Amino acid sequence: MRAPCRSFGLSAGKNRGLVCGGQPVRGGGSGFEADQGWRDFGERLGEAFQVADDIRDVAGSAEQEGKPVGQDDALGRPNAALALGLPRAVERLEHLIASAIDQIPFCPGRAVLCAEIRAVTRSFLPQMIWEVAH
Q1: How confident is the model at residue 120 (pLDDT cuts 50, 70, 90)?
Q2: What do you get for the CA distance between the two ends of the chain, in Å?
Q3: What dihedral angle (degrees, nearest 10) is formed by the CA atoms of 6, 20, 76, 73?
Q4: HEC profile of 41-71
Q5: CA-CA distance, 78 to 30, in Å (whole number)?
Q6: Predicted confidence (pLDDT) at residue 22 exceeds the cutoff of 80
């Protein structure tokens, strides 16, 4: 049974589950501590992706997103941006991304991997939303 996310009562079965796949995430030949680090990385990154999706549902446009926006509010679904407000939701997103990166076990190429994850997670939101939230 999956535990709920730490915030907003979101089901871990949403985007967080996509990253973790419900299975232990393993680094090649790693021990338990490394396995737990990869699992924690996946959970945090998945939750970050969900928070970004919530932000886009509130602050994005249908044209930009390629799908209707405002659906969480209209359907009464939990949404981090609605619960926290846009600036605090973006802060939460940044915290989750940093926390995910911190969970990556020490391994060859870790610095490069961390830099790549930082770069890719910037694409979670359009630049305009990053700027407006700060």
Answers
A1: very high
A2: 37
A3: 100
A4: HHHHHHHHHHHHHHHHHHHCCHHHHCCCCCH
A5: 36
A6: no
